[in-house]
Amino acid sequence: MISGNNVSHSHTKTRRKFYPNLQTKRFYIPEEDRWITLKVSTSGIRTINKKGISAALKEAKEKGYYSG
């Protein structure tokens, strides 16, 4: 989460928050022959599509993001 300002037409500034675009998505892992459900950002979905789910999970486990 990042914070910033809402800026009106009269340039009155009020605080606001920017949240990541999280989606619940199911991925199939052919090596384990099972489905997993992840709550992942849309940019994360693009990364998984680019690298593949197996490589992305391996990298996430090494960094400590995923323990499954």
Note the overall shape: elongated
* pLDDT averaged residue by residue: 93
Order of adjacent strands in the largest pleated sheet: 1-2
* DSSP helical segment count: 2
Radius of gyration based on Cα positions: 17 Å
Strand content: 35-45%
Number of strands: 4
Helical fraction:
25-40%
Unreliable sequence segments: none
Main pleated sheet: 2 strands, antiparallel
Could you state the order of secondary-structure elements as H and E?
A: EEEEHH
Structural class: alpha+beta
Number of domains: 1
Terminal residue distance: 25 Å
Written account of the structure:
This protein is an alpha+beta fold and 68 residues long. The protein has one domain. 31% of the residues lie in helices and 41% in strands. It has helices at 42-51, 53-63; strands at 2-7, 13-18, 22-29, 34-41.
Write the layout of secondary structure elements.
Elements: E1 2-7, E2 13-18, E3 22-29, E4 34-41, H1 42-51, H2 53-63
Antiparallel strand pairs: 1-2, 3-4
Helix pairs in contact: 1-2
Protein traits:
single chain; 68 residues; alpha+beta; two-stranded antiparallel sheet; elongated
Report a brief summary of the structure.
The chain is α+β, with helices and mostly antiparallel strands and about 70 residues long. It has helices at about 40-50, 55-65; strands at about 1-5, 15-20, 20-30, 35-40.
